[in-house]
Structures are given as C-alpha cells and as structure tokens.
Amino acid sequence: MSTRGTAAPADQLTVRRSNLSLVLQHLRDAGPRSRARIASDTGLNKATVSSLVAELIDRGLVSEGEVQRIGSVGRPGLSVELAGGTVVGVGVEVNADFVDVTALDLTHSVVLSARTPADMRALGEERALGLLVRCLREAFDALAGRGCTVVGTTVAVPALVDSRAGRVAVAPNLGWTDTPLADRLAVALAGHPVLGGAEPAVTVDNDANLGAIAEHALGVGRDADDLVYLAGEVGVGCGMVVGGTLVRGATGFTGEIGHAPLNPRLERCGCGRVGCWETQVGLGVLLQGCAHGPDDPLLDPAGDIDSRLGLVRDRAAADDERTCETLERVGIALGLGASVLVNIVNPRVLVLGGYFGLLAPLLLPYVVETLTERVVAPDGGGVEVRASELGFAAASRGGAVVALQTVFADPTRVGSPAV
C-alpha cells in the first residue's frame, strides 16, 4: 500500500513535539495568551493550538488564567500561561568558598535557594564532591516535599569545562583536574524520587557563561543581545553574549579573562602563571587589601561572603583608609581589564557580577573613568555599565535556566497526555 502524501507516525510525532515546543516557548517569551492569540502569533491553526494546549495542560506545563478579549467583537477566551511551582530546573555553583543551589520553575520564579559556605579547595576534591552531593540531595529532598519534579541539573564551575562531556578540565581555584563531574553526580543522584523515575540529566558549564545566560534571560541584561558579563569571585570569569547567543569559541574555552597577563607586578596566580588579571581584582585580593591583620573576619573562609562584603561597605562608609585605597586600586584595575573586553567585543551592556556588582557603588566611579580613558571608540563605544542584581546567585540561576531548556525543547519529557 502506498504511503505517498501521508506522514509516517514517527514524522507526525516529531511534528507534534516541535509544535508543543513552539507553543511552550512562545508562552515563555511573550507571556500569557489566549488560544486564538497563540494561533495568530505562531501561524498554527486554532484547532491545532487547542489540541496542543490541552496536552500541555495534561502534562502540567501550562494552566488556564484570566479571561482575555481580542478586539471588540467575538467571544472572550481564557488565557493560557506557564504553570509555576512544580516542574523545576536546578542550578548549582561550586566555587572556592561556597556551594550555591537554586531551583527555578518554568516561569523562572525561584522555588528554592540555599548557599553553604565552605573552603572547597581545602576540602580536597573527594570531600568537596561529597559536600556537593549532600547539598544537592538536601535540595532534592526539599523539592520533593513540595511536590516538584526536577527535569535537569546544571553545575557551574570556575573552570575550563568540556561541557559536551560534562568534564572539568582544570579548575585552578578548586584544585580539580580532569574531573568527570556530570557522570559522578548522575550516579550519586540516580533514583531520587524528585526525578520522577527519569535518569538524572546533569550538565556542567563554566560559571561565567552561566552567569551571562542568567543576566540575558532574567537579569539586568534582558534588553541587550550584546553583553559582557564579568564575574568577580575568587577567580574572575567572563561570559559574552553576541547577537543573543552565548559565545563559546572553537573548543568551548572562551572567557578566561582572569588569566590575561594584565598585572605588571607579575604576581603569581592560583593557575601557576604570573601577572594574571585576577591577581589584581580577584575577591581574595580585595579582602586581603581591606583586612587589618590575619585574624580579620574578612579573611574567614567559613564566613558568609555577603556578610564579609557588608563589612567592607561599612568600613568604606567610615572612610577606613586601607579599605578606600584598596577599592580605588581594584576599581582602576577592573576598568583596565574591562576596557580590553569593550574594545574587542563592543557590547551594549557590561554587567558587573559577583562581588563587583555587590560593591558597584564603590567601584563604578573608578571603572567608568578608566573605561572613558581606555576605550578607543567615541563615548566608550556606547557601552552601559550595569551592576548585577543577582549577586553570587547568577551562575546557579543560569544553570537552572539551562536545565529547564530540555523541557522547552521537548515538552514530552514531562508527564503524559491524557488518554
């Protein structure tokens, strides 16, 4: 029997999966819409949209909201919107002095946020991985108690990362080398009830890349398709979005601006090289510069980083000479390195993240002045410097955004349609 002109079942399933994804992504990007408006916006016919929406409701991915009327005539329709609170993606950042876990639902609302201070390098790789697993299991337990389903977990690491293999190539500030992180976490997390019986989808990426994704998706860079994100932590990372797309480079190792040789004093960096930019602007440099002796609470790795930075702000407000001199020195060096990026990339927005963002009022005058002096293009190339509002949670939130992409790409991963 000829099947010419008739789509094979596999093709029909592929088309439907693609259309489910189209509708779900449209609701994410455009907000609540009536079925008629979705059909008009996407070019799908109304009957198809009604069927797709019904399936997405059955899968727990969308819900019906308020009545909407299009124009002045015709019957009003119920709006359709993303369902919040139950389907979540988890992002976790592993950094030198903390583990930060964030869970976002489909609306990108925060369902869970938890940070655990720890000296991750001092723990050594095995104990640090044990702590990471414990933090994730505690988060999974809490999410399961709220009736959530985790669709994926993305881990942010300050490292050169082979994201396709889920492997940390080298993380100087953690002391990790050639670590198969995704595989190890997948084994450790397998079978948790919050996963709904699915295999744990674990991915790994560079922390600055994920910070840039977070700023572009839900932070201060939402209106800019060309942005540079600078992450100020123990190390210094850079994520670049050009034309709305994250720049990864030929082998995925872009953004290592912290190891650019910009320090003329040639001080030794945690990576083993000398003269790296992060020896001028890394978090440890700032805290050491502001501290009054080795017992200063600024230097306590077990202390919450937000509290320690609050102490820096307090000392600056009190005109503490050592603190003010350090902030000026770091701010000028930050502007110098940022000017290199602005000259190369010409972004519309430069986002200061991590501690750079939290101390932005104290650093910005020096950064902007140095950019004005060093950027070749008129008016600084039109770049606008903005302080991140996500703080040290940017990378974990970016990880959660990435984890949720699996559902937006294929909604059939979650639940099942009513029979």
Describe the 3D structure:
Residues 23-63 form the HTH iclR-type domain. The protein has a five-stranded mixed beta sheet with strand order 6-5-4-7-11. It has three domains: 9-82, Arc Repressor Mutant, subunit A, CATH 1.10.10; 87-209 and 396-413, ATPase, nucleotide binding domain (Nucleotidyltransferase, domain 5); 224-389, Nucleotidyltransferase, domain 5 (2-Layer Sandwich), CATH 3.30.420. With 419 residues, the chain is α/β, with parallel strands linked by helices. The chain has 13 helices and 16 strands. The chain has helices at residues 9-30, 35-42, 46-58, 120-145, 181-189, 207-218, 278-281, 283-290, 305-317, 321-345, 355-358, 360-374, 394-409; strands spanning 33-34, 62-68, 77-82, 87-95, 98-105, 110-117, 149-157, 160-162, 167-171, 176-179, 202-206, 227-232, 236-242, 245-246, 349-354, 384-387. Strand 5 (98-105) and strand 6 (110-117) form a beta hairpin. Helix 1 (9-30) crosses helix 3 (46-58) and helix 2 packs across helix 3.
What structural keywords apply?
single chain, 419 residues, alpha/beta, Arc Repressor Mutant, subunit A, Nucleotidyltransferase, domain 5, 3 domains, 5-stranded mixed sheet, 16 strands, 42% helix, disordered N terminus, ROK
**SSE series:** HEHHEEEEEHEEEEHEHEEEHHHHEHHEH
- Stretches with pLDDT under 50, minimum 5 residues: 1-6
CATH fold group of the largest domain:
Nucleotidyltransferase, domain 5
Q: Percentage of helical residues? A: 40-55%
Secondary-structure-based class equals alpha/beta
Question: How would you sum up the major sheet?
Answer: 5 strands, mixed
